[in-house]
Amino acid sequence: MEVKNFIRIIGLGFVLFFSLPFGGSLGGNSLFAQNNMGIGTLTPKPSALLDLTATDKGFLIPRITDTNAIVAPDTALLIYLIPTSNFYYFNGNYWQAITSGTGLYGSTGNTGSTGSTGNTGATGSIGGTGSKGNTGSTGSIGTTGSIGDSGSTGNNGTTGDTGSTGATGDTGSTGSTGGTGSTGSTGDTGSTGSTGDTGSTGSTGDTGSTGSTGDTG
Hints:
With 217 residues, this protein is mostly loops. It has one helix at residues 2-13, and strands at 25-26, 29-30, 37-39, 50-52, 63-64, 78-81, 86-90, 95-97, 103-104. The N and C termini lie far apart (207 Å).
């Protein structure tokens, strides 16, 4: 359907050529101002309004970057839009893409009044549950690989030399003599001891000799 519309639009777009005074020739071939015309051929096909014939050329239509640059486009106007890399024609309301089927919409019109809500349709029957597919078979477990041999233990390293003894630190200063403590309180007097026994009487000494009588006065 899109190909037919494309061909029809191209044909309608070429109507403007009929207003040109083709009295000479183009590329060595005459252009006929009759019921139809040809470019590149002296015998245009009877069913074509415009017959373009070439083996090394194509038909190049206007290429634009913004459809808003075209003021009041006519229906069936054909362009190539560069930003989208697509052909478009104006369908009377908006620009319609030929290849994708999506047009470039114009400005949004006024919102129409809300129509009445239609009747709710009957709820359709629930379809049957499809059959469950078969569970695939579990694949076989692969064989466990052999454990590799343990590597040999490396030799112990030599014991390092004992480090030298560090120097003796300086003797600390003697601390100051503490103050004399206070004299303690006098203790209680002890109890008097018991009286000792009386000693034995000593022996009487010898009587001394009588002295000589003094001279008479």
